[in-house]
Amino acid sequence: MNLTKAVIASALLASGISTAYAGSEIETLINMLHENGMVSDEQYGRLQAELKQNNMSANQEKQAIKEQLAEATKPSDVIVKVNGGVSMKTRDGAFSTKLGGRVQLDAANYSGQPDQGDGTEIRRARLYLQGTMHHDWGYKLQYDFANTGANGKGIADAYITYNGFDDLQLKVGNFKAPFSLEQQTSSKYVLFTERALPAAFSAGRHIGLMASTKQQHWSLAGGAFGDSVASKGGAKDEGWGLGARATYAPINDKISLLHFGLGLNYRDTGEFGTARFKQQAETHIAGINIVDTGTINNVNDFLRVGLEVAAVIGPFSAQAEYITTSVNRSLGSDLDFDGWYAQASYFFTGESRNYKKGAFGGIKPKANVGEGGIGAWELGLRYSTLDLIDGDINGGEADSVTLGLNWYATPTLRFSANYIDVLEVKGGSYDNQEPDVFQMRSQWAF
Amino acid sequence: MNLTKAVIASALLASGISTAYAGSEIETLINMLHENGMVSDEQYGRLQAELKQNNMSANQEKQAIKEQLAEATKPSDVIVKVNGGVSMKTRDGAFSTKLGGRVQLDAANYSGQPDQGDGTEIRRARLYLQGTMHHDWGYKLQYDFANTGANGKGIADAYITYNGFDDLQLKVGNFKAPFSLEQQTSSKYVLFTERALPAAFSAGRHIGLMASTKQQHWSLAGGAFGDSVASKGGAKDEGWGLGARATYAPINDKISLLHFGLGLNYRDTGEFGTARFKQQAETHIAGINIVDTGTINNVNDFLRVGLEVAAVIGPFSAQAEYITTSVNRSLGSDLDFDGWYAQASYFFTGESRNYKKGAFGGIKPKANVGEGGIGAWELGLRYSTLDLIDGDINGGEADSVTLGLNWYATPTLRFSANYIDVLEVKGGSYDNQEPDVFQMRSQWAF
Amino acid sequence: MNLTKAVIASALLASGISTAYAGSEIETLINMLHENGMVSDEQYGRLQAELKQNNMSANQEKQAIKEQLAEATKPSDVIVKVNGGVSMKTRDGAFSTKLGGRVQLDAANYSGQPDQGDGTEIRRARLYLQGTMHHDWGYKLQYDFANTGANGKGIADAYITYNGFDDLQLKVGNFKAPFSLEQQTSSKYVLFTERALPAAFSAGRHIGLMASTKQQHWSLAGGAFGDSVASKGGAKDEGWGLGARATYAPINDKISLLHFGLGLNYRDTGEFGTARFKQQAETHIAGINIVDTGTINNVNDFLRVGLEVAAVIGPFSAQAEYITTSVNRSLGSDLDFDGWYAQASYFFTGESRNYKKGAFGGIKPKANVGEGGIGAWELGLRYSTLDLIDGDINGGEADSVTLGLNWYATPTLRFSANYIDVLEVKGGSYDNQEPDVFQMRSQWAF
């Protein structure tokens, strides 16, 4: 019941006790009958007394009900929702708290060369606490229990937001720099178990400041960043950077999307002067980098530029990105590395990829397993390529084709199987080798 | 108020507004008096008007109360319970979330040889988030903040379950392989502060798949497993294994139990080819292994077989296990190691060990401290022995006697004192030594 | 509505159905009119029947409302509050659970010598679960995700309390030894981003037992402690200690305080026999210790003595501490190190430092940002000095002046900027050097 209704209801309750009160016709009748001489004075007196007492009782009774109703329908402070995790918010929206997380359980079987060890892994095991404080402020802390190490290495998001401006959010803390559609899309929601080869140029999470705005048809974000959580400078200045991303989505409704994006990311290497780019065969369990520049020294800074395009037409989606990285060295020539991927997917069960202001979100099956349905089933295909050879750096070049099947049993569960065929590695430590990967993932996330 | 009652109540409320409405006798009376000529036409008109208006007001009033009552008694979405941790579930049972944990605070004093350093330790400090999603699915993530290290070493449970079949649960993720009564019993609930010497043959937690069924008088579980969370294969295939356990409890009621169990656990060592078995003096603070095979090379695989028996007769309990491990080597003869323990306990305060379909659970004192009682007091005695000598491997042999006192102040609190007398170490690095251990634990768990 | 009111209300509801029931005057009137011959016997019969039926309906209706009201106003089990984190307690107070935390996001710019690397850091990222069990027992587990390492290094608080005695609390587990006003004050609430130079003599957290009492005008705490969480003895006995602190606050109301304190802390080094005292330039990002004794060997034990004084007069506060540490060696002369600081602060916005029985607590702005205000603004000034030179140990001596600005946007948010001018380092590795530090912090905490 909203407040207006409650006020009206209270008013009605109150009005029932006023002048032409409920049952006043009996008093009128008694008066008339007395006037008309139908009841005696003595009878009239008794009736009046009884009437008065009964009215008093009735009023007390109504008052009691009124008080109990007010107690029962007072706006309770906190609304609690459970969907696996739990979210709570005050009725006025000034405060909220959400506890959620994800676990990704992986297994992989490798063939071809180089040797990669078959095995299992918990790819990510994250919990987060996120919320709103005093209307305008937000916070988040997310930790990855599967990616631990010294100096807080496992900290993913850790930030404060200010949301008091219309259409503009300020953020300070540790979070992803605004770069690349596939990076902005959570690992819970990317199409395949691992991101494409050009993720070697991921801008990653750093401690920094960002301003952003997200509209239905466009978004803009820009920020300045220090180094990552686990980096410890000692006597040397840590690295720092600048990053910005713009997206434009001329078509964006529930089942149709056309998205374009441009990202820029500049990193100064601080007093360390090194950079390194490397990539596994779109797998993570064995940990073998099939292409790897090794540590490049004498690096002043480098600039990543990324182009994005994506489309959704009902159950069909397509997405492609090109990323180039230019490395500026104080000794030796400048270096240029690049890569791109293109991918498509189709939902047999009729769902659509879910786009949310600059990134893809989670899938809600039309009918969940456990509630009479078979969940959502999606087939995906990807080609990706990465070139880490330039000048004196022979990091190797690789390209691969991935076939993937996703089963979203419920909005909180996903099971995936991927087959990755690395077509060929050229150059680098694994020249002419062609590993294949079959990997499966079981995931809960909320 | 259940739904039926609410419907009846609503019907009654509604019925009060229908044809022979509440107070309709007054209208009848007025009509009669008018017919009988007791009130004039003019008076009759006034009475009718007043009656009509009052009826309308009364109906509005009733409607308002009806709406407020509906609002007040709508099935609230989430039921919250606090018992130290917190559990929440939706009224329909489709979703639930539980946040709980345990902390074990230990101190130990050592005497005899070898030298073991007196000290303190947080043995375990775990939090878990566990729940139900969309009726048929479950999840859990549990982390041990006291057992941290790189690559997610501290992750204990991390899994998904499917509970949509009658009497059969499927589980995928990281969890304990089904082996050994004392291993299946949580560290919160085992009789002594540390498990018996044969825990050297613990099957432990691995990432895998398991099917299980648990009935009142028997249970059966079997699964296939990869390697442990923190193992990183690199170029080598990780180890894998198969495990199964059957239990039979011909007697199993609140205060009586007779339990038999058989466990099998096979491990292939993958491309690592090594195995190691070791054990401390049923203590953990100093970290000295009094028996230790060291790393055994050229191991293809090994098989553990475990036999279990347990009984509860009111406040008395007894439990014994025998475990043997056969190591199959590609170079060198096969090896056989084994061990067993037998233990008994008695509650002075009348409680009984709490058996739950294949393992022991927590103790609820008859009267809690803080609520007028003294909690539950239990005395325990154990003999255990472990033989890690065979063929060319001289890991040593040890046997020990443990006397333990447990005080369960409340269902969530436990304080324990253990005295462990290692009778003799034979062979291995500590041949002929006889250490003693006195250790205490303070534990909260929920 | 309290229980009494509910009972009265129920009684009133019930009474409405009794003898002189609501509307009984109509029955009286009908009887009178019948007696007076105004209605015929047939009419009287019809009226009575209608009246009876209507009364029955009315009673059923009232009973339904009564039942629904009882359902709606039953005491719900758990009260939930959200203030960023979340706290829940049962209505009877027997159980409670609180989930909270803090994140401190730092950036620093260094100048002068020695070289210190500019950079960023997550200084602390903590979550805690804390609660009450069965009335008299409490627990807490707090982990610092930014200070991780092996063997549970990140565990901050992990303890059990017993609160069943009047005015006396028992605590077992890992927690801060009772020593130093600035140490007892949470890092969320200390005046500057880092504690003063004499924090080199911090007594820190250890696993132990403590008894304490906290009154309006005084507090007393004493305990025995083992070693810290991450220390692993192996064959050597870990260190242990004793600690006590007494405070006296002759003036202590909402806006005025006069506080005196005395702390003693004794540490035996166990079989390790070493001690080390060191300190950074009241900064943490670069990690350079400007004074450092290095590892001192042959140490039997050492004793810290601390003197505290603090005052609050409305928006003004002042605080000073002197700490001396006497090191007793088995080889070499005894050593004496010491340090002190004095600081003052002023709230432009009229708030007062918040003293809670022996330590300072959090600031509640008079008007929050996001709720029409500008938060609380505080300026602080500190001088501190530390001398780590004695006998054969030349750890260096340093003194510094710090100017700080704190902005508390809401009770849960704090932004701080500090400028630290190290006046001079004398002796040690950085003799004659004078580094400056500018550092900023963004913090959420609840």
Can you give a write-up of this model?
Three copies of one chain form a homotrimer. The first copy, chain A, has two domains: 3-72; 79-445, Beta Barrel (Porin), CATH 2.40.160.10. Helix content of chain A is 14%, strand content 50%. By secondary structure, chain A is mostly beta strands. The longest helix of chain A has 32 residues, at 41-72. In chain A, helix 2 (24-35) packs antiparallel against helix 3. Chain A has four helices and 22 strands. Chain A is elongated and about 120 Å long. At the A-C interface, helix 2, helix 3, strand 2, strand 3 and strand 4 of A face helix 1, helix 2, helix 3, strand 1 and strand 3 of C.
Taking the sheet with the most strands of chain A, its summary is: 16 strands, antiparallel, barrel
CATH domain topology of the largest domain in chain A? Porin
Oligomer: homotrimer
Report the radius of gyration of chain A as a whole number of Å.
32 Å
Q: CATH top level of the largest domain in chain A?
A: Mainly Beta
Low-confidence runs of at least 5 consecutive residues of chain A = 1-19
Written as H for each helix and E for each strand, in order along the chain, the element string of chain A is HHHEEEEEEEHEEEEEEEEEEEEEEE
The backbone outline of chain A, from C-alpha atoms, is elongated
Largest binding interface between chains: A-C, 79 and 70 residues
Structural class of chain A: mainly beta
Strand arrangement within the widest β-sheet of chain A reads 3-4-5-6-7-8-9-10-11-14-15-16-19-20-21-22
